[in-house]
Amino acid sequence: MRIQELIIEGFKSYASRTVITGWDPQFNAITGLNGSGKSNILDAICFLLGITNLSHVRANSLQDLVYKRGQAGITKASVTIVFNNEDRAKSPLGYEECKTISITRQIIIGGRNKYLINGHNAQQQNVANLFQSVQLNVNNPHFLIMQGKITQVLNMKPPEILAMIEEAAGTRMFEEKKKKARETMAKKDKKLEEISSILNEEIFPKLDKLRNQKKEFIEYQKIETELDYLQRLIIAYDFQINQERLDRSDQDLQLKQKVLEELNNKYNEFEEQKKVMEKEINEITLEREKELKTGGHFQELDETVKEISRKLVKIKTQKNLKIDSMKEEAKSLESLDSNIHDVEEAISKKKEEFDNENKKLEQIKLNHKEEVKKTQKLEELLQTLTTGMAAKEGHENGYMEQLTESKKQITIASTENEQARIKISHLKEDLKEWKPKANMAERENKNLLKEKEIIEKEINKFKEKVESFDIDPNQEHKYIEQLEDMKSDIYDIKDKIDRLSSQLVSLNFDYTDPYPGFDKSKIKGLVAELITIPKDKIDTSLALEITAGGRLYNVVVENEVVGADLLEHGRLKRRVTILPLNKINAYTIPQNKIDTAKSIWHNKVNIALSLIGYDEEVEAAMRLVFGSTFICSDPTVAKDLSYSNKTNVKSRCVTLAGDIYDPSGTLSGGAKPSSAGILNKVQDMKELQVQLMEIQNKEQTMRKEFDNYQRKLQIYKQIKKEYDLKLHQKSLLDDQLSKSSYARCKQMVDDIEKQLIEQQEIARSSSEKLANAKKEAKRIENEMNDFANNKESKLEQMKIELNNSKKNISKQTQIVQNCQRNVDVIQCDLDQLEKDKHSINDQKLNINQTIEKYKNQIKEFEDSIKEVEIQYQKSKEELDKERKLLSQYDDQLKNLENDLNNLSKQNTEIQLAIKKIKHDLERFNNDKKNSHRLIQIMLNDYPWINEQKSLFGKPNTPYDFNAHNIDESKKRLKQLEERHESLRKQINMKVMDTIDRVEKKEASLKQMFSTVKRDKSKIEETIKSLDGYKRDALETTWEKVNVDFGSIFSELLPGNSAKLEAPEGQTITQGLEVKVCLGGVWKQSLTELSGGQRSLIALSLILSLLQFKPAPMYILDEVDAALDLSHTQNIGQLLRTRFKGSQFIVVSLKEGMFNNANVLFKAKFKDGNSTVERIAQRKKNIKDLNERRRALREKN
Fold first, then answer.
1. Is the separation of the CB atoms in 131 and 139 below 8 Å?
2. How far apart are CA 463 and CA 770, in angstroms?
3. Pairing of β 1113-1117 and β 1143-1147
């Protein structure tokens, strides 16, 4: 189908009727000056094809398409195209018999839009279907290339280029089908959601309620049956008892009266015996009192013994107090001994440190003094040698004085050495004399020395043990304080937990084990106790409480078996709802709705389930309670998500203030419920329990540490005590040895050896001084000789040495001062330690005096106790004699009183028996009357008794009383009556019919749910198969288009090539990009190309797509605008040679393009109206060519 004739009237610049005929079947070109109306011809064609986006025809409204917008008297615009339809293979559906098809579109200002096909009115959709059937869909055109298309293609990204390939492959329609399929899936999801909502929010709750009612109804029927049986059994039993009571009343009455008479006689007899005994007791008592009055010494002795006993107790108490005080002082003394030992060790260390520092200081001072002396000598020598005068009066000049001084030192050192040798000789003789004496004395005291050596070894061992103990004796108090603090904290936390528990009574879930060995871990607990709220989400607690509602108090169990056991045998004290984890079918808001809500309101909305923490094993229960509600920050968010059709979330929402917005249209809010804050209290309870556990663990750990510490402290005290004892033994031995002859001889030997060492040191020191002095004298003599030979250089050298020496003196002075400060600091520390030692010794002295005083007082108390014990013993013996005299009366009285008491007890028992018998007689009479009355009442109230009383109490009958525990039966009857009354008030008598209807509805909805789900899975499979077909078609199209693209580009730009390939790291289903090879080099980017080269690339791609799926007609609007003449010529030739099966209509201003056209239409604008002139250009070109050939032949 191709254009044969175009008629334009009143359309844009074509005011008058313009008929354009003679369209070439292949290549038509339209040219003209700017504003001549050439592009309006293309706009007219697009207008007829039914374009909806008017911006593509440069108009804002249909009125813009009428000539001068109707202002020039022309109020309508019409375009008619006559299509040649001779090729029936390419004919539109339904028009195969028509050789031509005339289609007209007309618009009238203020009127309607009208279509005509072959002169008959047609609907716009029919026209659109006609064009789409021959691939002329103007609203998604691949045959229409307008002015901006080239630029658009140049700027396309890989996904957009891929979209062009998909359009050419025809797979875009699959996307439409997928879109429709997804819409259908969304409807299916919505249907599933509606069915789930009905099941979860209406059917399941109603069924749960009806099933509970059914259970209650069945229980009610069972109770009625059992109640009737138990009532008859107990009535029969009461009747039987009353009948038996009547039968035996007379016989029992006679027996009771006989027993009563015997008891009365016995009582009178015992009363006579009591009177006789009381008289004897009075007589003996009078005699005893008479004896006491005559012998009043007994009371006096008794008082004396008591007084002495009190005095003895008082003295013993005072003695014990003094002993305790003395022990405390002894402990203080032990502590002071330990302290003074530490102080003495510190003093010893300080003294050692002081001696070391002092020696160091003395050595430094000595070195400093030597350096000063040397410097002074050098300075004097230099002055003497320089000026020729001595630095000090009375001294010789220069080297002579130094030489004299050196010789003087030689003499002194020689003399000192000689004297030391003489003293050493004398001391060695004395040592020979005294050493044998010391050895003899040592042999005499060998045992003491050996004992001392043993004790010293033991002391060293004990010292090592004491020092090895890393223990602080004062740490015990700290441990006790910390344990007391922890006990106080535990008490406070337990108190807080108790107070909170009293506020959370509603969360108490009391039950007994349904059977022995019941696994309590199968009961997970109440919902409120199973969740935790993070601290940063605590402000949502009220909203979460409102969300959960009564389900906060539901009990979560492992399965329905555990729930049934609890309900039947758990003896529950209140009604509860049980959630078996394996039976929960929870509805949760779909993820797409959550994503939609979050994308709109971000952090202002959260699903309730995401705001709580819980164990994974109870997730099903948490989803049931919190999975179907949004928590919103304010009412605006809640309204939008509950009611808005725009967001289409439509889920139940709760605000932070506790207001409920339900999609069904209900809105709840107002004051907070009385139970508000229960989750906060539960969280506080959990935190307190965690704190309690932590503190208890810490207390347990510290108590273990304290026990270990006490054990180590006990061992430490024992070892310290033994260590101190050994030190005391050593001091005693040292004292004993110091007073012996061995000590005197040993002291003498030690003094001689000490002096011998000192003299040997003096001899060695004087020998060194002598050698040094001789060396110095020789040096001076050498220097005198050198100075005489080289005076100037020697003086210069001496000046340098003098300067260096002065610098050394300055440094040494600073060192001396620093050392002196260190010595002073150590001396201060040492003085302070000495003061501490004196203070401790004073305290020890005071304590020892106090202990001695306590010992004397204890000794006095012991003497007093001995004296008082003697007095006590003496008085007690006298008292025992007196007591023995009176004991005879006491024994008689005691025997009589015992007999009297026995008689009184027997009489009391007889009285009680008489009263009991009288009471029984009275009760028998009453029982007899009552039994008779009750039997008459029962016979009147229960007529069935006369019929069945013969069975009462008989075995193997319903009235076998031995086979039943009557007391338990009565309790059971009472329970059944209470339960029966309770159920009667709330029982639903129509529950069986109702639950049958609801269960049928549930089955129907579940069937519908499975059907919809199955349909959804089929749609998903269809989408999957469409994706596979699309991928295959896309690969085929890409391969063909890629070949044509390279071929066309090489024709337009010879020697170069181009291709389409997927970006690096991607596949062709993700996107395609253009790669160009110019001069054998593949370009990295199109930005490296010139504007004309880029336009050729875009045009090559468009033409390759056109060639893949040829349309009957192509429209190109100035696609060569950016190209030079040679490229335009190539495009014209390409269109003429490659696209022979399609009709091209090209608008161009360049000769290279329209010279290749078979027919050229030139548009002109004259007198405000556009006109068109047709030129059969191809035939003219052939005629001109033939004439030129003929002229050449004639010339030849």
1. no
2. 50
3. parallel
State the greatest distance between any 2 C-alpha atoms of the chain, in Å, as a whole number: 202
Closest CA to 156 of 1100, 1107, 1073, 1070: 1073
Residues 6 or more apart whose CB falls under 8 angstroms from that of 654 comprise 543, 546, 547, 608, 629, 630, 631, 632, 638, 660, 661
Query: Rounded distance, CA 899 to CA 519, Å?
Result: 65
The crossing angle, in degrees rounded to 10, of helices 204-294 and 791-941 is: 90
> What pLDDT score was predicted for residue 1101?
77
Least confident of 54-68, 571-585, 1043-1057, 1098-1112: 1098-1112
3-class secondary structure for 455-523? HHHHHHHHHHHHHHCCCCCCHHHHHHHHHHHHHHHHHHHHHHHHHHHHHCHHHCCCCCCCCCCCCHHHE
Q: For 369, what's the count of Cα atoms within 13 Å in the CB-facing half-sphere?
A: 6
- Please give the Cα distance from 698 to 1010 (Å, whole number): 58
Tokens 């109020």 correspond to: 75
Bridge partners of residue 120, in order along the sequence:
117
Cβ atoms within 10 Å of 72's Cβ, excluding its own = 12
Q: What pLDDT score does 393 carry?
A: 41
Phi and psi at residue 1071, in whole multiples of 5°?
Answer: 165, 160
Query: Which tens digit of pLDDT belongs to each residue from 374-391?
Result: 777 767 666 666 655 444
Distance CA 1118, CA 1126 (A): 16
pLDDT value at 425 more than 50: yes
> Is residue 150 exposed (0-12), middle (13-18) or buried (19+ Cβ within 10 Å)?
buried
Per the CB < 8 A criterion, the answer to whether 924 and 252 are in contact is: yes
Closest to 660 (Cα-Cα) out of 550, 546, 544, 539: 546
Whether 169 and 1033 have beta carbons less than 8 Å apart is answered as: yes
Burial 780-813 (b: 16+ CB within 10 A, else e): beebeeebeeeeeebeeebeeebeebeebeeebe
Q: DSSP letter for 117, please.
A: E
Q: What is the mean pLDDT of the chain?
A: 78
CB contact at 8 A, 1112 and 1089: no
Amino acid at 96: E
For tokens 């008959």, what's the residue? 120
Compute the average pLDDT of residues 1103-1110: 74
**Ramachandran quadrant class, 288 (left: phi over 0; alpha: psi -120 to 50; beta: rest):** alpha
Angstrom distance (rounded) from CA 1131 to CA 1124: 11
Per-residue pLDDT, averaged over 454-474, amounts to 77
∠62-66-72 over CA atoms, to 5°? 140
Number of C-beta neighbours around residue 1174 at 10 A: 15
Which amino acid, residue 201?
E
Whole-angstrom distance, CA of residue 992 vs CA of residue 986: 15
| Nearest in space to 931 (alpha carbons), one of 249, 295, 193, 86 | 249
Instruction: Report residue 2 as tokens.
Output: 């191709």
> Could you tell me the CA-to-CA distances from 655 to 545, 630, 668, 760 in Å, in that order?
11, 8, 11, 105
Neighbours of 848 (CB within 10 A): 12
**80-98 burial string, b = 16+ CB within 10 Å, else e?**
bbbbbbeeeebbbeebeeb
Six-digit token string for 316: 């013993």
Nearest to 550 by CA among 683, 680, 671, 673: 673
Compute the average pLDDT of residues 94-106. Answer: 89
Helix (H, G, I), strand (E, B) or coil at 112: coil
**Distance between CA atoms of residues 511 and 515, nearest Å:** 12
Could you give the angle at the alpha carbon of 1090 between the alpha carbons of 1086 and 1093, nearest 5°? 80
Which tokens in the block code for residue 440? 């003899």
